[in-house]
């Protein structure tokens, strides 16, 4: 049998299985239906200290330790229903390796099918949650930086550019009034058009500043910001928004208020893009020390089974925001029955804090 790893000057006729496992970062071994190793990747040879020529053609039991201490194939490998398990393997030097094994059946009905085994060492399994937590902390830090930058830019636009445009508008308005007595229709019309353009520019600047960072989120709090966002969305999209909240003040940190607001924005954006909805029902409530944000539309919905293969970066972003604030993100949908999003997070222990709104 031709070995998987070749010298540089050879031209191997690689099978699909060989090409497949070369692009897997974990240790990967492909066998036939009788567990004879057909191909392996570099990560597998590194983990088990065999070279590819030694592994190719051998039974996968060469790596396994059974309960009796022998290297006969353990029941987990022979079991046709086996998907994943923790096991102890043995490398070329006789050292025991605690590993997590995942097995995938490849085209088993064709008569020439086989199995793809993915091995991950126990050290990697323990390291993975820590790395995930660190990446989440980094993402949270980057989001905080971005929100701070958006706040600063929005303030500069509103205070500096907004004030300058207002002064310019006052000057042009004064000029427009003075020109009335000269009866020059062309000059008056031109000045009037300039005044109208300035009015539209001021509205645009205010809209951009507000979308960057709604000042009411910091000044008045989350509830008022969500109500404002609901009205703005309804005005722009024509989709009816029914927002209900019995809460007047929500004592959460600025980070949590921002996350809930951004999740709400993204959810409404998804409704406008994909849902074909006529109404959206939203509630914000507190139950058993839990803040619950619910968003439900009456749109087309979708099959939840397709969620994993969709390009759902918006949903992924909402889920990550929820996880970063220590909460949960749940989504439910059925074709023709709309979509529901539920975001849940815990109130701080001292929920009677006298922090300012939105802080």
Written description of the protein model:
The chain is of the alpha+beta class. It folds into two domains: 16-127, Beta-Lactamase; 220-359, Histidine kinase-like ATPase, C-terminal domain (Heat Shock Protein 90). The chain contains ten helices and ten strands. The strands form two sheets. A five-stranded antiparallel β-sheet has the order 2-1-5-4-3. A five-stranded mixed β-sheet has the order 6-7-8-10-9, with helices on one face. The chain starts with 15 loop residues before the first helix and ends in a 13-residue tail after the last strand. Residues 1-13 and 352-359 have low confidence and may be disordered.
Brief description of this entry?
With 359 residues, the protein is of the alpha+beta class.
What order do the helices and strands come in, and which of them pair?
Elements lengths: L15 H7 L4 E6 L4 E4 L1 H7 L3 H4 L19 H4 L5 E7 L5 E11 L7 E8 H58 L5 H28 L2 H5 L2 H16 L2 E6 L8 H22 L3 E9 L2 E8 L15 H12 L3 E6 L5 E8 L13
Parallel strand pairs: 6-7
Antiparallel strand pairs: 1-2, 1-5, 3-4, 4-5, 7-8, 8-10, 9-10
Helix pairs in contact: 5-6, 5-10, 8-9, 9-10
Write a concise keyword list for the protein shown above:
single chain; alpha+beta; elongated; disordered C terminus; 10 helices; Beta-Lactamase; Heat Shock Protein 90
**CATH class identity of the largest domain:** Alpha Beta
Q: Tell me the structural class.
A: alpha+beta
Distance between the termini: 68 Å
The mean pLDDT is 79
Strands ordered across the widest β-sheet: 2-1-5-4-3
Radius of gyration: 31 Å
Low-confidence stretches: 1-13, 352-359
CATH architecture annotation name of the largest domain: 2-Layer Sandwich
Write down how many β-strands occur, each being a DSSP E stretch of 2 or more residues. Answer: 10
CATH T-level topology of the largest domain = Heat Shock Protein 90
Give the name of the CATH superfamily of the largest domain: Histidine kinase-like ATPase, C-terminal domain
């Amino acid at each position: 049998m031709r070995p998987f790893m070749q010298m540089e000057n050879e031209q191997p006729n690689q099978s699909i299985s060989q090409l497949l496992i070369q692009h897997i970062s974990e240790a990967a071994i492909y066998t036939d239906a009788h567990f004879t190793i057909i191909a392996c990747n570099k990560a597998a040879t590194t983990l088990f200290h065999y070279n590819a020529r030694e592994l190719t053609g051998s039974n996968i039991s060469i790596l396994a330790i059974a309960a009796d201490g022998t290297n006969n194939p353990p029941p987990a490998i022979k079991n046709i229903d086996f998907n994943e398990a923790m096991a102890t393997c043995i490398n070329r030097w006789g050292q025991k390796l605690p590993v997590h094994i995942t097995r995938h059946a490849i085209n088993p009905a064709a008569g020439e099918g086989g199995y793809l085994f993915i091995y991950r060492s126990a050290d990697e399994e323990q390291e993975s949650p820590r790395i995930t937590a660190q990446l989440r902390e980094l993402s949270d830090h980057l989001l905080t930086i971005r929100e701070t930058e958006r706040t600063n830019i929005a303030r500069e636009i509103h205070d500096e550019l907004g004030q300058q445009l207002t002064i310019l508008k006052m000057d042009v308005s004064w000029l427009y009034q003075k020109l009335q007595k000269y009866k020059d229709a062309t000059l008056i019309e031109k000045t009037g058009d300039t005044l109208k353009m300035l009015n539209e520019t001021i509205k645009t600047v205010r809209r951009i500043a507000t979308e960057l960072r709604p000042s009411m989120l910091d000044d008045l709090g989350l509830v008022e910001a969500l109500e404002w966002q609901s009205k703005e969305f309804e005005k722009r999209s024509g989709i009816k928004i029914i927002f209900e909240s019995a809460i007047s003040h929500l004592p959460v940190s600025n980070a949590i208020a921002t996350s809930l607001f951004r999740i709400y924005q993204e959810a409404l954006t998804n409704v406008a893009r994909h849902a074909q909805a006529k109404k959206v029902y939203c509630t914000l409530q507190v139950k058993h020390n839990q803040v619950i944000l619910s968003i439900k539309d009456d749109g087309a919905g979708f099959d939840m089974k397709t969620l994993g293969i969709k390009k759902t970066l918006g949903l992924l972003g909402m889920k990550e925001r929820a996880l970063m604030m220590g909460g949960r993100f749940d989504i439910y949908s059925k074709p023709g029955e709309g979509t529901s999003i539920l975001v849940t997070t815990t109130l701080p222990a001292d929920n009677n804090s006298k922090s300012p709104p939105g802080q």
